[in-house]
């Protein structure tokens, strides 16, 4: 049971980020979930690069769950990832206005998971093995 609590932030992140990455990288299903039309090859290329970046970060989280020696690095990456996305969304909301509901959920989830990850790092960061 302690394993689940210790890895909760990484498991939650995986459950959200993997499907998001796949949606971002799939121009045919992207408009069904977000108000984005992929009309150029450059936008498609950018979104697939973001998809692979997200999946690569998820790989680090999986390593952190699977191998305890990677847990701290995975948690630190989770903090940077989530809070950087939340900061970018907040900046966009100030400069560009409010986005659709999916992105409003995103900033809330990113802030909560980022703060949970900080808590997890403080609580479990000193553990070995």
From TrEMBL:
Membrane-spanning segments: 7-26, 46-65, 101-119
Source species, domain of life: Bacteria
Entry keyword set: Membrane, Transmembrane, Transmembrane helix
UniProt keyword Transmembrane helix, yes or no: yes
Protein name as it appears in the record: DUF4345 domain-containing protein
Organism encoding this protein: Croceitalea dokdonensis DOKDO 023
């Amino acid at each position: 049971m302690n394993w689940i609590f210790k890895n909760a932030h990484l498991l939650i992140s995986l459950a959200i980020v993997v499907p998001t990455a796949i949606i971002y990288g799939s121009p045919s299903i992207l408009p069904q979930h977000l108000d984005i039309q992929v009309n150029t090859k450059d936008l498609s290329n950018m979104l697939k690069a973001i998809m692979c970046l997200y999946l690569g970060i998820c790989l680090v989280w999986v390593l952190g769950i699977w191998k305890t020696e990677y847990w701290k690095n995975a948690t630190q990456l989770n903090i940077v990832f989530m809070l950087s996305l939340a900061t970018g969304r907040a900046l966009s909301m100030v400069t560009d206005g409010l986005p659709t509901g999916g992105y409003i959920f995103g900033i809330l989830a990113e802030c909560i998971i980022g703060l949970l990850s900080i808590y997890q790092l403080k609580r479990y960061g000193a553990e070995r093995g």
